[in-house]
Design a protein that fits this description.
Layout (H helix, E strand, L loop, with lengths): L3 E2 L2 H23 L4 E7 L3 H17 L2 E7 L5 H13 L5 E4 L9 H7 L11 H9 L7 H12 L8 E5 L6 H10 L3 E5 L6 H5 L4 E4 L17 E4 L3 E3 L2 H8 L3 H10 L2 E3 L4 H4 L5 E2 L6 H20 L4
Parallel strand pairs: 1-11, 2-3, 2-4, 5-6, 5-7, 7-8, 8-11
Antiparallel strand pairs: 9-10
Helix pairs in contact: 1-12, 3-4, 6-7, 6-12
Bound molecules: NADPH dihydro-nicotinamide-adenine-dinucleotide phosphate.
NADPH dihydro-nicotinamide-adenine-dinucleotide phosphate binds next to helix 12.
């Protein structure tokens, strides 16, 4: 079997087109332009790339985007003051605190400080509680993107076995809950799970979010399963690349050009032989995360202005 490769970029573009229409309508009917503010503490390089991508995506579809840059050594209280200011700002519909934060900052306090009505990342305890209870809420963007891919691809979930590999607060736990709400029978695995390949290969749907380059190979996958790869890892060690991918010319060429190759948590070439469908890296879940953030920002703008 050779798996169908799911085109996350195409699905993300459909979502962005829908959001663009929604933004235009809000502007035309209420004279409102939705606004997203991102709080970035320090200069984490991956965060800076991600923030630039978000700003570009916002611009493309007509959402006002601002980034509040806060000095790396600032205290939790200083960042809290900025968040409180954004909570009060009527031009700001969505607030996103960029993670990871420097280690001296109290992440929990910051996430709790965001007005739940503006919590477009869905990490506020109120949002997470509502998610658990199955009530309307802002769903964290990556899990929302995963569910949208499964929906748009027509993957049946009701009554199916779904395995979530990874139990982080931002990906694994919310995704497992969402799969359960869609009536899948869900197993959550993590670093202490015994006989991991045996457990993961029970899944008709296998979602992987572990941050371990290409760790999931064919023995982790049930023949015919749908595999969603959330991982984003930069591999720069040539020996490591050769250990995992042999002399794969595309990997070697990417390494030569950029100094690294971008790898998911799933070994695509090997898993492709057993799965029925899978998401690639790049071009799978990644583009969906930003698309769902834009969607959440539009929803926040409509709700705050009593228009939906
Ligand atoms: P975390 O590091 O927060 O969590 C990783 C999870 O994987 C933990 O539950 C951990 O188990 C588990 N794990 C780690 N190693 C193993 C192992 N060898 N066997 C089994 N389980 C293991 O990661 P995130 O959830 O934040 O991110 C996961 C990946 O997804 C990363 O590559 C990240 O870059 C990517 N990501 C991509 C996004 C996108 O938009 N595409 C968005 C967010 C993340 P334990 O709990 O026991 O420690």
């Amino acid at each position: 079997m050779t798996a169908r490769i799911i085109d996350g970029r195409k699905i993300a573009q459909q979502i962005k087109d829908e959001v663009r229409l929604g933004v235009e309508k809000l502007r035309a009917t209420a004279g409102i332009q939705p606004g997203l503010a991102t709080v970035l503490v320090g200069d984490h390089p991956a965060s800076q790339v991600y923030i630039r991508m978000k700003a570009r995506a916002c611009e493309e579809i007509g959402i006002r985007s601002t980034t509040i840059l806060i000095e790396k050594n600032s205290s939790t209280e200083e960042v809290l003051r900025q968040i409180e200011q954004l909570n009060r700002d009527d031009q700001t519909d969505g607030i996103l605190v960029q993670l990871p934060l420097p280690s001296h900052i109290d992440e929990g306090l910051l996430l709790q400080a965001v007005d739940p009505q503006k919590d477009v990342d869905g990490f506020h305890p109120v949002s997470l509680g509502n998610l658990l209870a199955g009530r309307e809420c802002f769903v964290p963007c990556t899990p929302a993107g995963i569910m949208e891919i499964l929906k748009k691809e027509g993957i049946p979930l009701k009554g199916k076995r779904a395995v979530m590999l990874g139990r982080s607060n931002i990906v694994g736990k919310p995704t497992a809950i969402l799969l359960m709400h869609q009536h899948a029978t869900v197993t959550i695995c993590h670093s202490r799970t015994e006989n991991l390949p045996r457990v993961t290969s029970e899944g008709d749907i296998l979602v992987v979010a572990i941050g371990r380059p290409a760790m999931v190979t064919e023995e982790f996958v049930k023949p015919g399963a749908v595999v969603i790869d959330v991982g984003v890892n930069r591999l720069s060690d040539l020996a490591e690349i050769k250990r995992i991918f042999g002399d794969d010319p595309l990997r070697l060429a990417e390494h030569q050009k950029k100094g690294y190759t971008l790898v998911g948590d799933v070994h695509q070439a090997r898993v492709q032989e057993v799965a029925s469908a899978l998401t690639p890296v790049p071009g799978g879940v990644g583009p969906m995360t930003i698309a769902m953030l834009l969607k959440n920002t539009l929803i926040a703008a409509r709700r705050r202005r009593g228009d939906g």
